[in-house]
Every structure is written in C-alpha cells, then in structure tokens.
UniProtKB/TrEMBL annotation:
Residues 6-354 form the Major facilitator superfamily associated domain. SUPFAM superfamilies: MFS general substrate transporter. The lineage of its organism: Bacteria, Bacillati, Bacillota, Bacilli, Bacillales. It is a multi-pass membrane protein. GO terms for cellular component: plasma membrane. The chain crosses the membrane at residues 7-25, 37-59, 71-88, 94-113, 134-153, 159-181, 202-225, 237-256, 268-288, 294-317, 329-352, 358-377. This is 3-phosphoglycerate kinase.
Amino acid sequence: MHNQKWLSLNFFAFFFTWGVFLPYWTGWLTNEKGLSVSAASVIMGTGMVARSLSTLFFFPLLTRLFSLGRLMQILAIASFVVMAFYIPANSYTLLFIITFAFSFIYPNLLPAMESGATVLMQTDRIHYGKSRSYGSLGYTIALLIVGAATAVWQENAILWIMLLGLLFMAVTQSLASPVPLQSRPAPRTKKGPSATAELLKSKGFVTVLVVSILLQGAHASYYNYGFIYLQDIGVNSFYIGLILNVAVIFEIVFFVKADTLFEKWSVSSMFLLAGIGSTVRWILIFLFPSVWVFILAQTLHALSFGVAHFAFIRYIFKKLDPVNIPAAQGMYAALGMSLSVALLTFAGGYLYEIAPGYSFLGMAASSFPAVVLVLLTRKRFAY
C-alpha cells in the first residue's frame, strides 16, 4: 500500500474511535453502568491524568523499545483487549481500573501516528494535511453513526461501536507499515541527554510548545460545555450534533488544503493566525449568546485548532532531528492535548456556573497570551 494511503487509512481508523470515546464515554458510564455524573467524572478525570502521564513518559520509552510501526500494532491490539473487559464490568472499582488502563494505553496511538506522519513527511514527502483530513472525516462519521445508533438501540450501542472501531483499527495496523516506520531510532549513548532533556534545552522548541499548550488548552470549554451551552440557549437536541459537526467539517476542509495554502507561511505566522482566530471565536460566543453566532464561531475551528496543530507539526518537521520527534509528540499530546485541557476544564466549569458566556471568555485568557508570546519571540527564535 502506498505510504500516503496507509497513513490516511490509519488516521481515519484512529479518529473514528476517538469520535466515539471522547464525546460519549461519560454518558455511556452513567446510562449503561448506572454511575452518577460525579462518579463518572472522577473516573474520566483520572483517565485524563493517566493519558497525560502516559504520553509524556511512557510513550517516549516505548519508542526506544519498538519501531513506530510495531508500536502502533501493539497499542491497537492492546486497546481492543482492554476495551472488551468493559462488557462484564459493573462495579465502580472495576470500571475505574479498566478506564485507567485504557486511558494509559489507547491515547499513545495519537503521538505514535503523528510521529509516523512527521517521519514520512521527512522521508517520503507525503502531504500531512491530506492524510490528517481523513482523521477528521473518521471523527465526523463516528458522531453520525453513534447518533443514529443510540436513537435506535440506546446508549448500549456506544460500547459495541467502539469495539468494532478498535477491531477495525487493529486490522489496519496489522497491514505492512511503511519501511521508514519499521526501524527503531539509533540508541543514545548512556552519557548523552535524553530526547526530552535535549528538547527542553531548546528555547525555540519550548516557546513553540508553550504556544501550542495555550492554544489547544483554550478549547476546554468548547469540548466540555459546548453541548450544554447549546441546550441552555434553547437549541433542540436533534440539531446540536449537526451544529457541533460544523467545526469538524471546516477542520476537514482546512487539512485538505493546508499543505498548499500554508506552504510559504512561517510557523510563527500560522500561530498568530490561530491565536487571533481563537480569541475572536471565544469573544464572539461570549458577546452574542445566539445559535447563529455559535455556528459562525464554529467555522473558526479551522484556525483555532487546525492551524495551531499544523503549525506545531510543521515546526518539528522542519527543525527537529527524527530521533527527537517521538519525545516532542509525547510532550505535545500530554501537555497541549491533555493536561492543559484538563486544568482549563476546571476553570471553565467554575466560570460556567457564574454565567455560561464567561466560560468561553475565560478561554480567550489562554489564547490571547499565545498571540503576545509569538509577537515577542518570533524574531528571536526565527520560527
């Protein structure tokens, strides 16, 4: 299979399962396993901590033991096996342990795939945006399938769709991986610094990582409270799923065109665009509590998430040695896509109780400093 098609297929398979687990698992725990919302939130919150620690420390270790291709196969199969234990589990303790284990294993597939994509960008000049758009497509299809299935079979369908998705991903990962992903990075000497330590010594990388953390973390209120916000402003539940999908559709369009549109853009200029788009997005929702304004703001997801993510990928593709890419992806997944979102979720929840709009305005307090940081550092670090 051509490397571009292999990457597209595996992005699709992973983000299909991501589109089931991320938005629906708390609801599945409460409806099918009988947990209270607070109990399910503790389980999912602990799972997010496990995800952060795992992608930060466990993932770089695994990349020194296995090639990226082999690692993705192992993670996909292990994720399916652990998910199957949910079928008989009914006690709080068992659900807690299974969720912790699953959250410790499964999310490592994301930095593994992103690392593989970056390596293939360097070795085969593949188009990252084109393949990543299939991931967004998989996420959208998952939302639609779960919505239709739960309307017929209730929340019980969520587990079986997740299991089928994981099985499909395990099959796709069993296909022969691209040759550049079949070899492990050259081992480091014992006296040499670790990849993480080496990256943290780079002021340019640390700056880019902090900007990414601020921009990705700013989505916390949208991810966690977007659904109930739409309910609070009177949107019928039937339309909420469609409205939330607007963001993913624009994300897909962006990734399809990203390689061409931003070919000559610097990383700092992309971050500026993302930061401005993100800040405008959250302020609009705060100022105008209207479904039409919310839909308009959804189009800015292509900037607030898509451009910010693409900028980070472009930076590590251009600036980092391949041996350091897995560690960089692990730090990004742990801090930018997990821990920052978790911490800002607590802040967003507190603000939401005061007034729903404040929860989104608070996210601008994360995105706007990213703009300032880029303006202060772009010339100094030339990124």
